[in-house]
Structure formats: C-alpha cells, structure tokens
Amino acid sequence: MAIITISREMGSGGIPIVQKTAEKLGYRLIDGEAIENIAPEYGLTREVLTQIDEKPPAFIEHLDRQIELGMNRIQLIVLEQALQGNVVIYGRGGQDLLEGIDNVLRVRVIAPFDLRVERWAEREWIDPDLAYTLVRKSDQQRAGFIKYYHNRDWEDPVHYDLTINTAKLSFETAVQQIVDGVKDENLLQLKSRSKERLRDLIIQKKIQIARLADDRIEDLTFQIKVENGHVTLEGHIYNEDEKLAAIDDARKTEGVTGVTENLKVVGYRAAPQDH
Description:
This protein is α/β, with parallel strands linked by helices. Helices cover 50% and strands 16% of the residues. The chain has 2 domains: 3-182, P-loop containing nucleotide triphosphate hydrolases (Rossmann fold, 3-Layer(aba) Sandwich); 198-265, 2-Layer Sandwich (Histidine-containing Protein, Chain: A), CATH 3.30.1340. It has a 5-stranded parallel beta sheet with strand order 2-3-1-4-5, sandwiched between helices. A 3-stranded mixed beta sheet has the order 6-7-8.
C-alpha cells in the first residue's frame, strides 16, 4: 500500500519527474487527467473541476457551498485511490489530505523562480514575460489553496519528507531519490495501521459531502470525527431538525459502525421581522 504525494512549483520539473516515478515503480498516477476521467462517477463535471481544482475559493457567497461540495468530492477521489495503494498523487494537497497516514512519502519539487520562468517559457514556447506572469499566478493560487483548505504555509519544509531542488540535480536523480525513499524500511513497517486510518478519512469525507449536499442542513459549523468506523459529531447546530438530519446523514454513510452526537442546539439566528 505504498503512497507517494508530490507537491511541485510550476517549472520545477514536477511533470516529468512524477511521470517517470510512476513508470519506474509501476504505480498508478493520480493527476489532473486521472481525476478528470474518474470525476463523472462522483458527480463532477469538467466545468466544476476547472473552477475549483487547486485554486482557493472565490468567496462568492452563493457559490461557497457548491465550491466546498466539489472540493470534497475531489478529495474523496484522492482518498479512495490512495486506499488502493501503489499510487503517486500529484498535487491536490495530497500531503495534507493524507494527514495521519504514516506510510506516505511526501515529496516537494522546487527550483529558483527565475529558472522556473525560463523553463516554462521554453516548454510552452511562450514569451518570457507571459511565463513570468503564469508562474507567479500559479504560485499564488497553490499557496492560497493550501492555506485555505489545510491552514498551513505551502513552503513549510516540515510537512515534506523529501525536498528536491532541480536547479542542479537532474530529473533522473530526482526520480531515483523518490524511488529509494518509498522503499525505506521505516515506511514499509507502517503500512498495516495506515489502511484503517485511511478508511476512517474516507468515511469522514463521505459524511462531509452528505452534509454539504443536504438541503435540510444550513448550519455547517459542527465537526465530524471518525475512529474505527465510529462517528462523533461535535459542535453547534441551529435547531433540532438540522441535528436529526446530521445524525441521519452519518448513519446512512457506508462503513459507519455507530454514531455519537455531542451537538449543542443554539438558535442564534435573528427571527424574521414583522412588517
């Protein structure tokens, strides 16, 4: 059940490195193309993927819930693919989404900004000024995506097991470092308990999706925790009807063995004014 996540900066060489890594190991590559192929099974259209994939939300009030729903469905795809094992997950916040899964090798591929601009201009046959703009925008979007959905600094090295600077190292060397890393004895010893944790994360994600898709629930401030299939709902909710709907969604989710609710009903919304 080996899992590799690869985070990259545009122009750092992430694309050829991730493709060659997957090919050398014989692993499935979960990238944008793979997600797009699987997406219809999860109720995701190409339009939705283009709007939200690896981008921070636009903060348009009437779209917020639909954006969150789409993002959670993309995350469910990544989690269910990871459960199958022997995968390379390219981007999509995989290193954070799989938090608590001990046998994941988390890789980051970087290079100096000017070199990345030069590489992108050559790769895409575009003007260097345009490449500069595209690389800078990509950095901002991906940093914003990680900050919003996972609340951390995209560049923080603590969240990666292996950081590769391709300014001097060849792509072939980068690939070999990743291949060697995923075969490390420490990772191999952590496989057994990781599957159960992954199953819990998948259940949690399915309940989050059910909650977002449920018109009976307007208040989304309560938390969902899952341990060995048992769900705990905690936090605040607006009324008893929403509370019952939240419990119902959790109980109906595949894999749930039981539900404990610690939801506090707080009718904090102002009552409609009579005119």
